[in-house]
Each structure stands twice: as structure tokens, then as C-alpha cells.
Write a structure and sequence with these properties.
Blueprint lengths: L1 H9 L1 H7 L12 E2 L6 E2 L7 E5 H7 L4 H5 L6 E3 L9 E3 L11 E5 L2 E2 L18 E8 L3 H4 L6 E7 L7 E9 L3 E12 L2 E12 L8 E14 L3 E15 L6 H6 L9 E16 L6 E17 L4 E22 L2 E21 L7 E23 L2 E20 L5 E21 L2 E12 L3 H4 L17 E15 L2 E13 L2 E4 L4 E4 L3 E15 L2 E14 L15 E11 L3 E10 L2 E2 L10 E2 L2 E10 L7 E8 L7 E5 L6 E4 L4 E9 L1
Parallel strand pairs: 6-9
Antiparallel strand pairs: 1-2, 3-8, 4-5, 6-7, 8-9, 10-11, 10-37, 11-12, 12-13, 13-14, 14-15, 15-16, 16-17, 17-18, 18-19, 19-20, 20-21, 21-22, 22-23, 23-24, 24-27, 25-26, 27-28, 28-29, 29-30, 30-33, 31-32, 33-34, 34-37, 35-36
């Protein structure tokens, strides 16, 4: 414990040397909902990134993954070459990294209880108001899945004046996207609605997808009493799975596919109701209720596997937030309860016609947790925060394989964690912070339970949750009116990380691991017509015990660099460019570090944007992603006979237009 704290303290002198308060006026504050207590980013003791609706509009992005892929320290890996079920990674986690990043939609969990990544296309981009990224462990605040950070996607709500926008984009490989959204207020009832259609033939053979979605919200407020928001979203996506290639096959033709019959379909419904009482001298009460339903149909002919999965999820999230003076010191207190229930039903078949049933089962996950956080300003500008959570999770299953071996079993997990933080606000845009706390992740239900229908299914009662100790220290500084910089050092010691053992044919707890690194970012605007930004993340993730002691964790690059800029040109034009470089890394499953590495890669994206002054609300853009046509894969895995690589898209041309009125 002492060594970890020394690591955090050692970085403080460098931060203090840089800490020269800026004299510029504060920027417009955005309340970060992921804070759960209505804090601005500058008031939070962590590394926070916010992407606004304006940022999204300027980016020319087609989906949420395209928007986030250039955020420093945030990585995405795709098995299909597109954004459908792309895996997100933070803070040096490799395989199944998405299970260590909690993703929320207006506070509602999107993480599935099983080992399937999030369907990012279920979030229509036209409905996104902003994206909040909290780096670092947040288990005391959120519980399961928040080992490495939290991503909260906030959707649009009603506006005082009606606003409508429409857009259409086209790109290489038969990609077409169309969106429409509207916001306003009718008789005191705020409303927002959107619809989106997205399809592509895909960069690789057999990698097409077709998606459509719609959503909306109603919000109402009775002054001095209560406010309410009702939100809904629905999405359907059909996508093909091109499978892996060998390294030689990828080098010869990265667009080919060796599978022609693997595909999937998902339909997702999300409903949420939020009630909030008016703030009094004692505080306010918030109550959120959520319901989600996901229906997935997987057709994996190459694996002789066909299955239907339905997930029903319920959540009830009451919390109390109060701000008051305690002995002359400003104090913010948060107390809440998180109750969640997931029921997953699965049917597996031995043929495409679904006439030969190999398994029929139901899996349930019940979670109830109590959490609190208190932040007190002990002296001017210095705030001390303390948080804690006590939680219980029950995972149970009733599985009936056709080949025998029926079982009905369960296991209860308990988690008790705490964290502490220090925050010193130099000015409204600058801060120093330090945090220490514990993190955890429960097993995915299909890590805890084998239900593949091969006659070897069983309840894995010996599998324990992942636990870790998280330490970080950092600073965000407004060095001048036009210059901001940040640096964060982190150390995360984990035990019992979960991974699949190809020898024992089951999921097991790994030896101890250590995730350490530094995140840096710089934003500079030398003149009104020019903006520059850059980020560098160094990560060292290694085993610290067992047979692989000292080896790197697979699928974790040591270095990740992003750099970009935008310049205003004559005739209402603007040009933007973005570079993304990811260092080499060991491929998935190579715990011994003896196999070939996944090569480093760099991409360059360019965009030209036209926003005519004479016609406000109109934007036209054209650009190209991966200008150099880099042949690379963002992910690869070791196999029994050969290593499997999943190529990413080559050069992609795109163009589009949007109009807001």
C-alpha cells in the first residue's frame, strides 16, 4: 500500500510546478451527470472528457464510436471492421475490456450481463447531446463494470424554442446514413424525437450491416415541486460477420472473408423514467426507473452454432443529494441505492432451421447495492471526498442441455469497497487531484456458467469476482486563455482477473496484474482561426505473479498518440485533420509473450467543412478517413492452428450535409 501511495505522491511535484493559475474567464460549465451529484468537470477529482453536440456536428462522424475513437486513452477494437459491437478499452485492459468500462445511456446501464459487447449503433447519433468519459475506477460510485472508467451518453431533451435538424451522409463501400431530429416545447411539456437509418456494404466481404433506430423524450417541470423526464429508444440492426484471416491472408487481401454464412440480428428497447424533487434547504430526491429488452439472433454456421437470446433488464435507482454548510465548510452529500435485475433466456440449436434444440436455459443476475459519497471543502478551494459501497449480487441458472447434464445452481457475491479523493481548484478551469480506492467486477454470466449445449455445461462455482486497488493523481490546467494541459498518472493493481483457459476449457481467475501509466493532453488555440490538440497515453500492463510474472498483458499497447487540428479558411471553409497512432501489442491469448505481435499502426483522417454565413444552419462536408490506406488490424487472437486477424477499413471517402432550422 505504501509503494502505491508513493507513486501517486511522486507525481504531485511535477503538477505543482505547472500549476500557475490562469487569469482568463471561466468557460461555460456543463453539469456532468455521470458524477451522480450534479458536478462540473472542474469540480470532479478525476480525468474527465466531454464531447458536446457541437463537437459531434463538426466531426462528420457517422456513429458514437467514430466520435470517441480519437479521445486520448480510449481505444476501440472491432471484429467486423465496423462499429457494430466494437469493444472499448481504457486503462490497460485487454481481452473482454468492455466488461471493465461501464457504459450508460442517461444513467441506464447498457452493458450486457453476458460476454457480448455493447451494440453502439443502438444509440442514434442524432439523439446525442453530449458524451461524458470518466477515466479511472468508479466502483464505489457505480459498482460492477466500472474498473477502468465510465462513459455516460446524454440524449437531447426539450428546448424553449423549436429546433429541427436533418442530415444525410454517404461514404465508400456503399455507406449511407440519414438522420432527423426535433426538439421543442408544447404547453410546458418539453419534447425531443429522432429517427436514423444507417447501412453499409462493408469494407470487407460479408461485413454489411443495416440499422435503424428512433427515440425521444418528454420532460415536464412543476416549479418548486417536481420534474420528470420519460425517455425511450428502439433500434434494430442486422449485421454480417466476416470472421478472421491469417496474417498472410490479410497482407494479400484484407477485404476478403472466409465465412459467408455468419450473421446476427439484434433489437434493443430502452425505457427510463426520472423523477426529481425541487431542491430545498435539505437537498433533493431523485428516482430513476429503467427497463431494457434485447433480442439477439446469432447464426454462426462456421461454428455450427445458432442461438436466440433475450435479455430483460430492470433497474430502480433512488438517491438523495444535499448541499449544506457543516461547521462553516461547504459539504455535498450523496446517498443512493442501486437495484438491478437481468434475466437472460437462451435457446441453442444444431441447425440453421432451428429444428434441433441443443440447449434451453435461463440465467438471472440480481444486484442490490447501497452507496454514499461525501465531499467537504476543508479549506478554501481544497475538497476532501470519501465514498463507499456495499453490494450483493446473485447469479443463478437453470440450464437444460439436450445432451444431458441439467443443472440448477447459483452463487452469491459480496463486494464492499471505499475510495478517498483530494481536489484543489486553482481557478474555475484548473485543478489538482488525487484518488485512491477499490474496484471490482462480477463475472459475466457465461463466465460463471457454461451453457453452450455441448454436453460439458456446468456451473463454475470456483470463479470469483475481480478485485483491485486504484490510485491516481493528476492536474488539469488553464495555462493561458488559449492553452490548456492535463496529466494524470494511474496505478491499478488487480487480482483474480478472469480469462478463458483453452487447456481446462473454462474461465478462470488469473494471477495478479498491474496496470500503470500516464495520460496527457494539450489543447492550444494560437489564433481565432486555428485550433490544435494532442494527447499521449503510456500504459504498462503486466502480470505480477504466477507463471507469466513480468509478461505483458495481451492487447494492451504501451503507447497511444492522437493529434489534430482545425483551421478556418476563406469562403466559409474549415479544414481539420486527425492522426491516431497505436503502438504494437501482443495478440489476444498470448500470455507467454512468445508469439508474433500485432503491428503498430497509424491513421490520418482529413475533413473539409463548409458553413456558409449567408445560410445559417447549413453545413456541408467532405473528407477521407485513413488517407494513407493503412493495412492494419485493431485486434487479433491466438488460435489452436493459426492466429486470427480482423482487418480494419482502408481508405474511406465520405461526404454529407446537414441543416438545422
Amino acid at each position: 500500500m505504501k509503494k502505491q501511495m508513493l507513486f501517486a505522491v511522486a507525481l504531485l511535484p511535477a503538477a505543482v510546478v505547472l500549476a500557475q493559475p490562469a487569469t482568463n474567464a471561466p468557460a461555460e460549465e456543463i453539469v456532468v451527470r455521470a458524477s451522480r451529484a450534479g458536478k462540473a468537470a472542474a469540480e470532479m477529482p478525476e480525468n474527465v472528457s466531454i464531447i458536446t453536440a457541437q463537437d459531434i456536428q463538426k466531426s462528420g462522424a457517422a456513429n458514437v464510436v467514430d466520435v470517441m475513437k480519437n479521445i486520448g486513452g480510449v481505444e476501440f477494437r472491432s471484429f467486423s471492421g465496423n462499429s457494430a459491437q466494437a469493444e472499448v478499452a481504457l486503462r490497460g485492459f485487454g481481452e473482454n475490456s468492455f466488461g471493465r468500462v461501464l457504459v450508460l445511456l442517461n444513467g441506464q446501464r447498457l452493458n450486457r450481463p453476458d460476454m457480448a459487447s455493447i451494440n453502439w449503433l443502438q444509440i442514434p447519433l442524432a439523439n446525442v447531446e453530449r458524451i461524458e468519459v470518466l477515466r479511472g475506477g468508479q466502483s464505489a460510485l457505480y459498482g460492477d463494470n466500472a474498473n477502468a472508467g465510465v462513459i455516460n451518453i446524454v440524449t437531447r431533451q426539450g428546448t424553449t424554442q423549436p429546433v429541427t435538424s436533418i442530415s444525410a451522409d454517404v461514404a465508400s463501400y456503399g455507406t449511407v446514413n440519414a438522420r432527423a431530429s426535433t426538439q421543442g416545447n408544447a404547453g410546458g411539456l418539453g419534447y425531443a424525437a429522432n429517427v436514423e437509418r444507417d447501412e453499409t456494404a462493408g469494407y470487407r466481404d460479408h461485413s454489411a450491416y443495416r440499422a435503424w433506430g428512433a427515440g425521444g423524450s418528454l420532460d415536464w417541470e412543476q416549479k418548486d415541486r417536481v420534474s420528470a423526464t420519460l425517455g425511450a429508444a428502439y433500434n434494430v440492426i442486422d449485421f454480417e460477420l466476416p470472421g478472421y484471416l491469417t496474417k498472410a491472408q490479410m497482407d494479400a487481401n484484407p477485404r476478403q472473408s472466409l465465412t459467408t454464412n455468419d450473421d446476427a440480428r439484434t433489437a434493443a428497447l430502452a425505457l427510463n423514467l426520472n423523477l426529481k424533487t425541487a431542491t430545498t434547504a435539505n437537498g433533493h430526491l431523485e428516482l430513476a426507473g429503467t427497463y431494457g429488452r434485447q433480442e439477439a439472433q446469432d447464426n454462426l454456421a462456421s461454428w455450427m452454432s445458432w442461438d436466440d437470446v433475450t435479455i430483460n433488464s430492470f433497474g430502480l435507482l433512488p438517491k438523495w443529494v444535499s448541499e449544506f454548510d457543516l461547521g462553516g465548510h461547504h459539504n455535498t452529500f450523496l446517498l443512493g441505492v442501486d437495484m438491478g435485475f437481468d434475466r437472460l433466456t437462451v435457446k441453442r440449436f444444431g441447425d440453421a432451421a432451428r429444428s434441433i434444440e441443443t440447449l434451453n436455459g435461463a440465467v438471472e443476475k440480481r444486484v442490490i447495492g447501497v452507496y454514499l459519497r461525501d465531499e467537504i471543502e476543508v479549506v478554501d478551494k481544497l475538497t476532501v471526498g470519501v465514498g463507499a459501497r456495499s453490494e450483493q449480487a446473485r447469479i443463478s441458472a437453470d440450464i437444460s442441455p439436450a445432451m444431458g447434464g441439467n443443472f440448477d445452481d447459483g452463487k452469491t457475491h459480496h463486494a464492499n469497497v471505499a475510495d478517498v479523493s483530494l481536489l484543489y481548484q486553482l481557478d474555475p478551469r484548473s485543478k489538482l487531484f488525487a484518488r485512491a480506492g477499490m474496484v471490482y467486477r462480477y463475472p459475466f454470466v457465461d463466465e460463471q456458467i457454461s451453457y453452450y449445449g455441448f454436453g460439458t455445461d456446468a456451473f463454475n462455482a470456483n470463479l470469483d469476482p475481480e478485485y483491485g486497488a486504484n490510485y491516481e493523481v493528476g492536474t488539469e490546467l488553464a495555462l493561458a486563455t488559449n492553452l490548456t494541459a492535463s496529466i494524470t498518472g494511474f496505478l491499478l493493481n488487480m487480482r483474480d482477473e478472469i480469462a478463458y483457459n483453452a487447456v481446462t476449457l473454462k474461465n478462470e481467475n488469473l494471477d495478479a496484474t498491474r496496470h500503470a501509466g500516464i495520460e496527457t493532453a494539450l489543447a492550444y488555440q494560437p489564433c481565432h482561426a486555428c485550433k490544435l490538440n494532442a494527447s499521449y497515453t503510456f500504459t504498462q500492463a503486466r502480470f505480477t505473479g504466477g507463471a507469466n510474472d513480468g509478461n505483458d498483458i495481451p492487447l494492451v499497447p504501451h503507447h497511444h498518440v492522437t493529434a489534430g487540428g482545425e483551421v478556418q479558411l476563406p469562403w466559409d471553409l474549415a479544414a481539420a485533420a486527425q492522426v491516431n497512432w497505436v503502438a504494437r501489442q501482443y495478440i489476444g491469448g498470448d500470455y507467454t509473450n512468445i508469439g508474433p505481435e500485432l503491428a503498430a499502426y497509424a491513421t490520418l483522417d482529413f475533413l473539409l467543412r463548409y458553413t456558409p454565413v449567408c445560410l445559417p444552419g447549413l453545413q456541408v462536408f467532405g473528407g477521407v478517413d485513413n488517407v494513407t490506406d493503412e493495412n492494419y488490424a485493431s485486434v487479433a487472437y491466438r488460435g489452436f492452428l493459426t492466429d486470427g486477424y480482423y482487418p480494419s477499413p482502408g481508405r474511406t471517402w465520405k461526404a454529407g450535409a446537414s441543416y438545422k432550422f
